[in-house]
Amino acid sequence: MFCPAVHRPAILHLITRHFVQHPIFPQRQGQEWDADTIRYESVFEMYTFCYQRGLREVWGYMWANWYCPKMWRLWARSASQYLSRLRTTMGVENFWRQLKHRFLHDYPRPRLDQLIWILVHNVTPKYLER
């Protein structure tokens, strides 16, 4: 078997995380990485993942089709100095959808002061927890 089913969700998670990284966005510990560092860390992380699990064929596929320099420029967000407006707009729309369904479901048209109170006291602590 090329890739056992048990490893597929983790590989998909890694690729997704590597796709969305960009020098504009800080890393979890507040570090700022440039595009070369993002690529190096992403390739190293995927290689380590495959090596530790004995997935040589998967690593060969990942390198040839996703992580080699030629292919990286085609799909990774960090390969460009600009962010796609479409992708950014989708993120903002998703945030507002989550906000409306999780925190504002009882308030179809909240007043501005009430919305700010909900953002400060409910949304921000949940975001910081995550």
Key phrases:
130 residues; mainly alpha; 66% helix; 6 helices
Order of helices and strands: HHHHHH
Strand content: under 5%
The largest sheet, given as strand count, sense and whether it forms a barrel, is:
none
Distance between the termini: 36 Å
Principal-axes geometry comes out as: elongated
Give the uncertain stretches in residue-range form: none
**Radius of gyration over all CA atoms, rounded:** 19 Å
Protein name: Transposase
Structure write-up:
It is a single chain. By secondary structure, the chain is mainly alpha-helical. It has six helices and no strands. Helix 2 (35-52) runs antiparallel to helix 3 and helix 3 (56-67) crosses helix 4. The model has no long low-confidence stretch (mean pLDDT 87).
Q: What's a concise summary of this model?
A:
With 130 residues, the protein is mostly helical. It has helices at residues 8-20, 35-52, 56-67, 69-75, 85-102, 112-129. This is Transposase.
Secondary-structure blueprint:
Blueprint: H1 8-20, H2 35-52, H3 56-67, H4 69-75, H5 85-102, H6 112-129
